[in-house]
Amino acid sequence: MNNYFKIAAFTIVLSSCHSSDNELSNLQAKPKKDTLQEVIQQEKFEYVAEQFSDLRVLRYHVKDFDKIPLQTKTLLYYLYEAALSGRDIIYDQNYKYNLAIRKTLEAIVSNYNGNAEDEQYQKLLVYAKRVWFSNGIHHHYNMDKILPECSKDFFLEVANDLEPTELPLSVGETKTQFLNFIANQIFDPKIASKKVSLDSKTDLVKSSAVNFYEGVTQKEASDFYTAQVNKSSNQNPMYGLNSKLVKENGKLVEKIWKVGGMYSASIEKIVYWLEQAATVAENEAQKTALEKLVKFYKSGDLNDFDDYNIAWVNDTASSVDVVNGFIEVYQDPLGKKGSFESVVSVKDFEASKRIATIGKNAQWFEDNSPLLPQHKKKNVKGISAKVINAVVESGDSSPSTPIGINLPNNEWIREEKGSKSVNLGNIVEAYEEAAGANVTDEFYYNDEIKGRIKTYASLADKLHTDMHEVIGHASGVIEPGIGQPQETLKNYSSALEEGRADLVALYYLLDPKLVELGVMPNLECGKAAYDEYITKGLIVQLSRIKLGKEIEEAHMRNRKMVAAWAFEKGAKENVIEKKVENGKTYFVVNDYNKLRVLFGELLREIQRVKSQGDYKAGQALIENYGVKIDQDLHKEILERYSHLKIAPYAGFIQPKLIPIIEGGKIIDVKIEYPKDFTTQMLELGKKYGFLPVLN
Ligand code: ZN
Q1: What's the gap in Å between 523 CA and the centre of ligand 1?
Q2: Distance between Cα 469 and ligand 1 center (Å)
């Protein structure tokens, strides 16, 4: 439910590429006593670091970090170490040989002493940066294998210059054997061509490169986990969340990710830092939650994870929050295995007022929603909502990041104990600061609409995220005996769930209630949200997809499905009009109120699909409206977008926390904002490279 961002943050920017050398010399030219913090305050913070391939690297800023009390800063520092300690895990989860490949690339980049401007080397470097950006050899978003533009010969030539000790060779393996193996892994497009396959015509497990299953078919895996569900209990843990499922001697066995189990070397470090963190917790509730998380990492028992999540939901008073664990299941074609991630954050008290207002009125929104009466929550529990500022992100949340998070994911805890929602304020701010007006000018129809977008889209996006997370994911109930949507709706559950949450937000964005609550100035803001949603869903997001491909990612499918469904259903009354002028296609909303009614109808239907586990209906919605792309339109959009010269995906360089230690005690924690992506990746790879290359 996390990851909401990856579309909403699709406000895009014309960025300029900075040479990191120039930036370094600028900094060095400052008088020595300036701390980086002061430099930032003196100059405008630079949000854009660089751009390569289809990626932009941005930076974010933690407001008033130096004003945070020492104990809280110390807590943040321990959680920062815990977050980064798990960094290797995501690489191994994404693909079995990712760590070996990454370490080889890092050895090359660290030791290369040829001409840095050499074209082949530049291409190899871009490949390395793309691997870091995606935590592996597959595109973080479209799941396709990334292929280097440099030649295999060049790769082997520079890799062969390395000493064997620089490479992660296994015992008995020669350098040549190792490098040939790695080169094939990197350059052969047929090896591990897709990270996560959602093509329902194939065996999803076998056709996906992720390292969650080995020697197991989709049916075996599904049956294995279905058999674990206790049908008479409505408090089942999310079976399979923290393990790799393998076949050993003809039997299915789970290799659990825990201390003493798989990934132990990283998890032991995480546990160490979480234990440190518990000693400086802000209050008992936070301390209890941290201790329960440690217990889970030690036992690997998913009931302990549920226990932890309940404790985490109960911790609402703390200013520091942390997500650390095996959380989102998007990277598993079967939606069972949690990818490691961590987000460490501190509350933004001022900005939290807006989201809190929506959270406080959650029951009103539920009562007034267009859902069928039997699918409404009678008692919306414990929705806690706030705006946070990220301090560090790791694993699945980095470098590409969510802008909103709603957890925990276990449906029974959400229903009975509630959930927590956050909006990552400083990330959203960084996106906005880095964004330009070019996309708006190109893809929106006339000055009235463009003006409205420019005035209101920033607030509309925030409200959309707030409502998507706070009342969207938290809304609705599943009918008794139906089971979790991952079971019933399978590979369509993520896209349908995101669609449901988006539709709750869209439905209310045109409701006078938001004006009455004081969180929206007028309904023009809601109209801007509608203009934006339709244009992004039908047009702008296509820029992220290669010609000839279909839409695969859950959030993109959802957005396309909602917009295309509304377009078709409103066609008779011309609710949304397709206009073509000078060879440019636009989708223009003619009737906002009728569009709202359509959004309400689709919301009711998707909730019904979820509540009743209606796989067929869910499949039809996604396949008919969310997957296919009109080829002519696609070609046109790619052409128009290419003129804007903006990479469509963004991710972030992380701030760096540095403890100042005196007499064995932390007396202060400083924050720095590194500027060079490659330097940070090499540094993190070295400092937190705890795992062996094969796990
Ligand atoms: Zn979501």
Answers
A1: 24
A2: 6
Taking residues 331-356, what's their average pLDDT?
91
Q: pLDDT averaged over the chain?
A: 91
Pairing of strands 384-395, 339-347: antiparallel
How far does residue 407's CA lie from ligand 1's centre (Å)?
10
Distance 468 CA to ligand 1 centre (A): 6
pLDDT at residue number 15: 26
The per-residue pLDDT for range 360-417, each reduced to its tens digit, is: 999 999 999 999 999 999 988 656 778 899 999 999 999 999 988 989 999 999 989 9
Retrieve residue 263's tokens.
């990934």
Decide: 391 and 655 in contact? Cβ < 8 Å.
yes
Give distance in angstroms: CA of 409 to centre of ligand 1: 11
Q: How far is ligand 1, taken at its centre, from the CA of residue 173, in Å?
A: 45
What is the arithmetic mean of pLDDT over 220-228? Answer: 96
Query: How many whole angstroms from 44 Cα to the centroid of ligand 1?
Result: 32
**Exposed / middle / buried, residue 485 (Cβ in 10 Å: 0-12, 13-18, 19+):** buried
486 CA to centre of ligand 1 in angstroms: 15
Q: Which of 33-37, 139-143, 472-476 has the lowest mean pLDDT?
A: 33-37
Q: How far is the CA of 327 from the centre of ligand 1 (A)?
A: 13
pLDDT per position as a tens digit, 150-192: 999 999 999 999 999 999 998 889 999 999 999 999 999 999 9
* Residue 446 CA, ligand 1 centroid: distance in Å: 31
The SS3 assignment for 435 reads coil
d(CA 499, CA 492): 11
Interacting residues of 404 by C-beta distance below 8 A, sequence separation 6+: 2, 4, 5, 8, 421, 422, 423, 424, 465, 466, 468, 469
Q: How far is the CA of 330 from the centre of ligand 1 (A)?
A: 11
CA–centroid distance, 3 to ligand 1, in Å, is 6
Residue 594, phi-psi category: left (phi > 0), alpha (psi -120 to 50), beta (remainder): alpha
pLDDT at position 437 is: 67
Cα(211) to centroid of ligand 1, in Å? Answer: 24
Confirm if 342 and 575 have CB atoms less than 8 A apart. no
How do residues 645-667 score in pLDDT, each as one tens digit? 878 899 999 999 999 999 999 99
Ligand 1 geometric centre to CA of 445 (Å):
28
Q: Which fold has domain 1-356+378-431+663-695?
A: Fructose-1,6-Bisphosphatase; Chain A, domain 1 (3.30.540)
How far apart CA 450 and CA 579 sit, in angstroms, is 16
pTM (two decimals): 0.77
Whether the pLDDT of residue 1 is over 90: the answer is: no
pLDDT at 14 over 50: no
Q: Delimit the domains of the chain by residue range.
A: 1-356+378-431+663-695, 437-645
CA of 6 to the centre of ligand 1 (A): 10
List the one residue out of 423, 351, 422, 347 whose CA is nearest residue 391.
347
DSSP-assigned letters across all residues of 573-585: TTSEEEEEETTEE
Cα 465 to averaged position of ligand 1 atoms, centre (Å) = 8
H or E element that contains 388: strand 384-395
Gap from CA of 473 to ligand 1 centroid (Å): 7
